[in-house]
Backbone:
């Protein structure tokens, strides 16, 4: 069976975390985003949050990992996310992707992320096309 | 009030090398364990010329060019009231470890919502390798003006 004939699953999901201080420090170093909102409880409190805030880009990286783990490296052609809530230190993040439609060879998934026991963190879309074998 | 005159501000392109250590650190930080990102031999066995980078990795090297914190500094916006509201990527071609990525960023828009309580700053980024576009991104930054007004820097 060629790749083009492998159907895209209707739904895939990934649960990450609980997000630790080490995760946030590593992501700050990897991403260059050293905003203290993500690292320092006092800075988070000054901004109105009871705990340090998980980088939106970390949630988005988890989302990308969900996609590439199912469809392969190089399969994510577009990824769009709106950060509708804030995940915080210690939260578990659950990401779901639901197949919305096919557009030619590309599968369009609707994305959502929620903190465990909490509200929505993120909504968006991913445009996926499996990379053909070299 | 965020300075609207900066709409259209565009950075001069600079080149950032995709270092193997940064891709590994990014994968460690994001829980990415697929060997294709970690091991050049595994990547070649899967048909890649070298280890590819994960889909949102390009955001991580933007800071070596001109970070969003620098954009905020340019606009005289304190980081304390700032949140990341939206992010989008389009990928035109794969990027690999060892690639020299030419990056340029531009302030595409600045607008208010909720009677000035929130300001949204839109920043577009273009990434090229060997003169060819490989990706584009759009970041929307939310400034909560009340947080900044309450605690002047």
Residues:
């Amino acid at each position: 069976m060629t790749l083009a004939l492998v159907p895209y699953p209707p739904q895939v999901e990934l649960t990450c975390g609980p997000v630790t201080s080490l995760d946030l420090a590593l992501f700050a170093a990897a991403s260059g985003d050293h905003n203290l909102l993500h690292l320092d409880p006092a800075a988070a409190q000054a901004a109105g949050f009871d705990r340090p805030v998980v980088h939106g880009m970390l949630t988005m990286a988890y989302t990308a990992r969900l996609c590439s783990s199912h469809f392969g490296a190089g399969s994510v052609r577009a990824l769009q996310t709106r950060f509708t809530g804030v995940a915080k230190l210690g939260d578990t993040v659950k990401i779901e992707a639901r197949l919305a439609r096919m557009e030619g060879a590309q599968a369009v998934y609707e994305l959502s992320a929620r903190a465990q026991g909490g509200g929505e963190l993120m909504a968006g879309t991913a445009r996926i096309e499996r990379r053909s074998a070299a | 009030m965020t300075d609207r005159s900066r709409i259209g501000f565009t950075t001069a392109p600079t080149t950032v090398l995709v270092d193997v250590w940064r891709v590994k650190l990014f994968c460690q930080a994001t829980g990415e364990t697929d060997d294709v990102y970690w091991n050049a031999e595994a990547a070649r066995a899967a048909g890649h010329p070298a280890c590819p980078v994960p889909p949102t990795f390009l955001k991580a090297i933007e800071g070596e060019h001109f970070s969003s914190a620098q954009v905020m500094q340019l606009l005289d916006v304190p980081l304390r009231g700032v949140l990341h509201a939206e992010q989008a990527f389009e990928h035109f071609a794969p990027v690999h470890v060892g690639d020299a990525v030419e990056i340029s960023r531009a302030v595409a828009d600045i607008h208010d919502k909720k009677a000035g309580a929130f300001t949204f700053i839109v920043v577009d980024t273009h990434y090229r390798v060997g003169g060819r576009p490989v990706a584009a991104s759009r970041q929307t930054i939310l400034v909560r003006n009340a947080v900044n007004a309450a605690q002047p820097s």
Q: What stands out?
A: Chain B is about 30% helix and 35% strand. The interface with chain A takes residues 22, 25-26, 28-32, 34, 36-37, 46-48, 52, 54-56, 59-64, 67-69, 79-91, 94, 147, 151 of chain B (CB under 8 Å). The helical segments of chain B are 20-30, 35-38, 40-45, 57-66, 68-74, 145-150.
